Structure formats: structure tokens, C-alpha cells
Amino acid sequence: MASDDSLLLSGSTESLKLWSCGQKFQLLKSWPAENCIFLKFLPKDRFFVTGSKTGVIRLYDLRSSEVVQTLKAHTEAIWSLDWHEKPAGSQGINLVSGSSDGTVKFWSVLY
């Protein structure tokens, strides 16, 4: 869910979908994806990240629908992702990912 509750993302093994959350849910955009099982908007809702069954994290630009960064993060499925903004004056964000491979990893991501 976007920070202002106006947009919702959904993902599956085949696609990602962006929905408007007005009085009725309306599909705004759909694009192909690979094995998405977790997704989350990043600060300011311009980018989002997905975690896959194959252990890959992808950073997407919401406006262009393109992958801007790919991380081979884990050897098994990613079940959780969260972010923390870096201190003022720093670029990007910090991500943490958790996987069924039994590991938790930290990432520094520029966007």
C-alpha cells in the first residue's frame, strides 16, 4: 500500500499489478514479473521492491515499470523485505531481507 493509501500493488508468479484505491479498486497498470512473493513501496512511493521465490530482489521504478536494480540476495524464497531511510545527506535506502534459506541480509540501495 502506498503511504497515502491511494495505490496498492499486487504480485504473483507471472505479473505485477498497480491498483487505484478509490471507492472501487481500479487496475491502473500490469506488467510481467518473475515469481514475486513479496513486494513493498519504498519512501515517497516512486519505487518499490519485490522478493522472489528464487531469492532475487528487484527494485522497480513505478513510473517506467522498469527494473532499475537486481540483487541475487538469497538461495531460496524471500519472505520479508523492509527498508530504512539513510541519514539526511545520504543517498538511497537500507534494505533488510529475510529468506527461507535461514538468513537475514542487509543491503544499501541507491535509486
Walkthrough of the structure:
This protein is an all-beta fold. Helix content is 0%, strand content 59%. It contains no helices and ten strands. The strands form three sheets. The chain has a four-stranded antiparallel sheet with strand order 4-5-6-7, with no helix packed on it. β9 and β10 (104-109) form a beta hairpin. It is globular, with a radius of gyration of 14 Å. The mean pLDDT is 92.
SSE topology string: EEEEEEEEEE
- Helical residues, percent: under 10%
Proportion in β-strands: over 45%
Please describe the biggest sheet, giving its number of strands, its sense, and whether it closes into a barrel.
4 strands, antiparallel
Question: Shape, please?
Answer: globular
Alpha plus pi helix count? 0
Radius of gyration: 14 Å
Nearest-integer average pLDDT: 92
Strand order, main sheet: write it out.
Answer: 4-5-6-7
What is the number of beta strands?
Answer: 10
Terminus-to-terminus distance: 20 Å
**Uncertain regions spanning at least 5 consecutive residues:** none
Helix-and-strand structural type: mainly beta
